Amino acid sequence: MTEQQQATIKKLSEKYKISSDSLDKTLLFLGVGYELTDRQMESYLSLGEGQLLEKHHLLMSYLQEEKKSDVDVDSDVDVDIEGEKKHRFIFPFRRKKNQNASNAKKSKRKYEELSRYIIESTDLSAAQIEQLRLASEAGMPEKDVLTLAKAGKGPMEIRKCVEFYELVNSKNAEKKKS
């Protein structure tokens, strides 16, 4: 985390009296991690206590706006959004070169249930969400990733499950080659 990001977190934490164990602190870290502007973060932090779902919804709408302004959804171009921090959550919906429109619609729906669960859940930490993102990125089936999320596994447990999945897949790929 850069000094500027730390300063932003400190400034907004003090301004909105956010304690270190508050769920608002998680939303603040997500906003900084996704490189939202101070104004955008202040707009959802200023909603007040007890408005967690509304705050999270506003945060996600800012991320969707960023995605829409940066990417033309209907174009058939290679879009690399994995490298963009503000798009890490939305990676399952990225487009690939020469992908037709029907495949694009299937791709968008691929992790829809998982995305909905993550958005609606108040039990997941930012670290758990990041590990679930990595599980999806590794190609783990949505139902398995959803099971990891709903089981309440910690970030390290999720990571080990993903590593195991990748190990099994690599061994299966080696068997297919020979």
Q: Report the sheet with the most strands, covering strand number, pairing sense and barrel closure.
A: none
Strand content: under 5%
* Backbone structural class: mainly alpha
Low-confidence stretches: 71-107
**Count of discrete alpha- or pi-helical segments spanning 4 or more residues:** 9
| Helix and strand pattern | HHHHHHHHH
How many E strands? 0
Distance between the termini: 45 Å
The coarse overall form would be elongated
What is the helix fraction of residues, given as a range?
55-70%
- Averaging pLDDT over every residue, what do you get? 76
Number of discrete domains: 2
> Over the alpha carbons, how many angstroms does the gyration radius reach?
18 Å
What can be said about this structure in brief?
The chain has helices at 3-15, 23-33, 38-45, 52-70, 101-110, 112-120, 126-137, 142-150, 155-177.
What does this structure look like?
This protein folds into two domains: 1-70, no CATH class; 122-178, no CATH class. Helices cover 64% and strands 0% of the residues. It has helices at 3-15, 23-33, 38-45, 52-70, 101-110, 112-120, 126-137, 142-150, 155-177. The longest helix has 23 residues, at 155-177. The chain is elongated and about 60 Å long. The protein starts with a helix and ends with a helix. Residues 71-107 have low confidence and may be disordered.
Q: Which characteristics define this entry?
A:
9 helices, 178 residues, mainly alpha, 2 domains, 0% strand
Fold blueprint:
Elements: H1 3-15, H2 23-33, H3 38-45, H4 52-70, H5 101-110, H6 112-120, H7 126-137, H8 142-150, H9 155-177
